[in-house]
Design a protein that fits this description.
The structure is a homodimer of 418-residue chains.
Chain A lengths: L12 H16 L6 E7 L3 H13 L4 E7 L1 H10 L10 H12 L3 E6 L11 H14 L1 H8 L5 E5 L3 H7 L5 H15 L7 H22 L3 E6 L2 E7 L10 E2 L5 E2 L8 E3 L1 E11 L4 E3 L2 E11 L2 E9 L1 H8 L8 E6 L5 H4 L7 H4 L5 E5 L14 H6 L8 E5 L6 E5 L5 E6 L2 E2 L2
Parallel strand pairs in A: 1-2, 1-3, 3-4
Antiparallel strand pairs in A: 5-6, 5-17, 6-10, 7-8, 9-14, 10-12, 11-12, 12-13, 14-15, 15-16, 17-18, 18-19
Chain lengths: 418, 418
């Protein structure tokens, strides 16, 4: 059975029930009476059903599923009129805003076909993404400021599985991917919730150490990379769990292996070479290199997908500056899997990475309350977009650089020094 | 494979492409530049993809799919808080309204699990249905007045197939149901579009004959039935195709075998016995009987689902009066199949039927332009609900009754007399 609607995991409903429970308890930490927005592909229906069941049993007031369908999306990007990509229905944007105002938690299930839009005009994706981000700017801000609990997690979709595990039979590829997801989110541990508690504590310790240093910059070196990333004034390190306005902790990414903070938008210099491909809007960008001066990309080159890369950079002024820098050891459980997942949620947790575009306001102290002017003054970048890409490998060294120029080795050959 | 997400027809994509094409050409008659709203279960994704592809290729500007998922719905009706069923999200209602204003055609794909909500508190469905109908009243009016082209058609869902063809293996049941759908929508003819043209012409001829009679009432007799249905003043017979504001004909139901018009809300008297079960909100109502006086139900009894029946009648004042009377010969292709489909779209085209609740404004001359007062004066019933149920069988006789009391035999033993 090679049909996109019938992946093997549909038989794993029992395991999905345990997974759904973990996503709600640890990822979202859903509170009784709260609403839950789920963003998912129709292919993920077996998992979404378990999520809905667990959410309602846990006292959710309403579970609103915003479905997408890969085939419908592909038909649109292939055949719809070009100018129809410039607007988003008003009621869709209103819906995001209203759910945000009502404190709906957001669970995004990723696992789309990495090649979904292959062969379509990238201008269409660019217009669509801009229109969508513009229409949903308020909700994006709310989420990126942890104004509601949110979690991005994965569903073992068939097309994704076949991309990540080429050469395997479809059912085997899905089984392998599902096993990889289970390992990455610690579902294979005897006590997954306890394992997450320990893991989050370890990431919080790492944040504490980095915060204590209060570095002025990080310096990345490796094959093709010599990049100095100045950090935002008053930056703080994030990672593991975040805190909702209610005070309840939640885990924004499952899996997550990173600690991250905000670069200073005007203090990034040097050259960086991506260590893994980047999937953006169903197009693969690979073998690429960016040169920065005073924070901005001044030169970009890609062996594959250069047009798509340029479209990202051209989104707006902030799209060619950095909004995130994240450290992940090469030996992270996901890195150890030795698999290129072709999905940012996984690949970014296998390697240190940086992101073009909008910074998380929580990456500076008091950031969620900062106005636009003050956020910019602190060096926080703003943009409609936020695109992570991997720069770390087992050949990457990272130093922390203090304000006085003193250097502290943080990572050597892709691993933490301490 | 017995999984609800993997019915056999997912393998029939090629046939779905032909079916999708027929639904758009004959059912909706989609015009270039128009928007299309599709209402469907996630299970119907393989057909919805073909519809989207065909619509975009045909020049659709945007295809908005409003997905539902049976499992998510069931989880909600089982476990959500009771008072959460009384409201519909504002943005959802706004969406229906906005799409209506923009002239979006509406394709509804039915084929849900007839027992979807079995075992849940029927009060929940009743609250939900009322809230939904109240929130979407404007859009419902637009559709029922043919203000936009619309079509209700079927998808061969697994749970539905297993209900209609009990005892068969799941794959076989789906294959049988899909074959029945193909026959019913004339997809098995060499020229389905041409076959629909002839069929619609035959129904229009029948309408013409009935309109010429201008009966004051119809009189149904059969086992347990002796019902006089007065017709609305200035009523006209509908059936086959309708006409959109653009002048383009469309077919609101595929399949369709009925001619129908509006009863007078205050002129229905006698007793009627349902000839087939009624599925409403995932609950089965069977073996039931209604007694009417001066248009209103004064006594209701059901062997099964009586509580659900009473809830329909209690929706509002108009829910216990009639909004439609339809004539279908027992020998219709769907009646001939000899199958109880447990789905109104099919079963109502196997037998003459009546509907509790709102009348179609187009059932009286100039009805789409009538104000509420004038519509009521003509005898058109109004309600939040519209629920069809079957009263015809091979033992049913129908007479037309003129204003002076003269009777014209219309049907004998379930068949047209002429």
């Amino acid at each position: 059975m090679t049909d996109a609607t019938a992946p093997a995991p549909t038989r794993n409903d029992e395991r999905f029930a345990v997974y759904a429970d973990l996503l709600l308890r640890v990822g979202i930490n859903l509170q009784a009476g709260q609403g839950l927005m789920v963003r998912a592909q129709t292919e993920a229906a077996p998992l979404v059903r378990c999520v809905a069941e667990a959410a309602y049993r846990g006292g959710a007031r309403f579970v609103e599923v915003l479905w997408n369908d890969a085939g419908v999306t592909r038909a649109r990007f292939r055949h719809a009129p070009q100018d129809s990509f410039e607007t988003v229905p008003q009621w869709r944007a209103d819906g995001m805003r209203q759910m945000g105002e009502q404190g709906y938690a957001v669970l995004s299930l990723v696992g789309d076909d990495p090649d979904l839009l292959e062969g379509t005009d990238p201008e269409r994706w660019s217009r669509y993404a801009k229109a969508w981000q513009r229409a949903n700017r308020d909700h994006q801000r709310l989420v990126m400021s942890d104004g509601v609990p949110w979690c991005v997690a994965a569903y073992p979709g068939l097309a994704w599985a076949r991309k990540a595990f080429r050469g395997l039979e479809p059912d085997d590829a899905v089984a392998r991917l599902w096993a990889a997801i289970r390992t990455a989110v610690r579902l294979d541990r005897p006590d997954p919730v306890g394992a997450w508690r320990s893991h989050v504590e370890a990431l919080h310790r790492r944040r504490g150490i980095l915060d204590a240093h209060a570095f002025a910059a990080l310096h990345f070196t490796g094959p093709g990379t010599d990049l100095r990333v100045g950090l935002a004034d008053g930056h703080r390190w994030e990672g593991g769990s975040a805190t909702a306005p209610s005070g309840a902790p939640f885990v924004p990414n499952m899996p997550t292996e990173e600690v991250f903070t905000a670069p200073h938008r005007a203090r990034v210099d040097g050259v960086v070479r991506a260590s893994r491909p980047l999937i953006n809007g169903g197009t693969v960008i690979d073998d690429f290199e960016l040169r920065f001066e005073a924070g901005a990309v001044v030169k970009a080159r890609a062996g594959r997908g250069e047009a798509a890369l340029r479209r990202i950079l051209d989104t707006d002024e902030g799209a060619s500056r950095l909004g995130e820098v994240a450290l992940v050891p090469d030996s992270s459980p996901i890195g150890r899997a030795g698999v290129l997942f072709w999905e940012t949620l996984f690949d970014e947790n296998a390697a240190s990475h940086i992101a073009l575009g909008k910074a998380y306001p929580v990456s500076v102290r008091g950031g969620a309350e900062l106005g636009e002017e003050d956020a910019r003054a602190a060096g926080l970048n703003d943009s409609l977009t936020h695109v992570d890409f991997m720069i770390g490998s087992r050949e990457t060294d990272v130093d922390g650089v203090a304000a006085d120029g003193a250097r502290t080795p943080l990572m050597r050959d892709g691993e933490w020094v301490d």
